[in-house]
Structure formats: structure tokens, C-alpha cells
Amino acid sequence: MSMLLLGRATTTFSMLSVVGLLLLLASFVSQGKCQTTAPPPPLCSINKNCDSCVPHAKCLWCFATNNCTDYPVTWLLPPASLCPLSQARWGVCWLNFEALIIALAVVAGTILISISICCCCCCCKRRRSGPDRDEERFARRREEIRQRAEERKVERQSKHDEIRRKYGLMGDSDHPYSKFENE
Prior knowledge:
- This protein is mainly α.
- The protein contains three helices and three strands; from the N terminus they run H-H-E-E-E-H.
- Helices cover about 60% and strands about 5% of the residues.
């Protein structure tokens, strides 16, 4: 019996190994077909005017030297030795780096101020909702006190009426101890 199970296990293992090997080979073959070489990045130095240079994100046009150079990705801003900021163009020809920095600073400042205002408004609203809860709680408590006072008043009134009936002080009562009146 154990030999039969061992034979089946070996057969199953060898079948799985063959299937796995075929899948592995197929994946290598299919990967080989799908892979393509990326085109080389454009050389910035071959561009001779600003309009052909700045559409490439890795290129920087300098009006001072009238040449297209590789953007120095190690620095956020190009160094002055490469090109002055007022003469450097990146992305579009009509916007220099100084204006770009100012515009980005204004946009970033506006976003930060907007976020700060939203946070302050949310905090103030949360603080204002606190007293509203307190006022609600006090109003509920006043209402409970008023209802208890009303219940006590009704109880007192019923006791007083009972005493008045007992001693005949009520005008139109039907009790046996009513006041005798001479006519």
C-alpha cells in the first residue's frame, strides 16, 4: 500500500515539476518578446533654440549663452555658474526661473494658508459646538426641574382639595359633611 502511495506521489511530483519548468520557460520566452529597449534620452546640446530645448524635462535653455544644456538634477536650482536664474528657462520659454520660483512660492503659500484656515475653522466650530452641548444639557435639566415642580404643584393642589372637601370648604361638593345653610 505504501509503495503504491509513494509511486503516486513521485508521479505527481514529476508532473508538477514538468509543468513548472514549462511555465518558467514560457515566461522567459514571453518576457523576451515584450522587452524593448528604451530610446536614448535626447541630447540637450543638439537643440539650437529655446522652443526645441525646453519641452524635454532634462534640458535647460540659457538666454545668456544661447545654448541648451542638461538640467543639473543634483541641485534644485541651476547654479549661477551654469546660467543666471533670470536667464534660465525650463518647461516653457516665456517663464524664467525667478518668476517660476515666485509663482510656486505664492501657490504653496496660498495652499498652506488655506489649509491653516480650514483647520482653524474646524477647531473653532468644534469649540462652539461644546457650549451648545452644555446649553442643551442645561435646557434638559431645566425642563426636568420644571416638570417635577409641576407634578409637586398638582399633588399639593389635590391634597388641598381633599382637605377642603373633608371640612366642607368647597362650594359645590357632594360629600356628606357639607355646610348647612338656612334658607
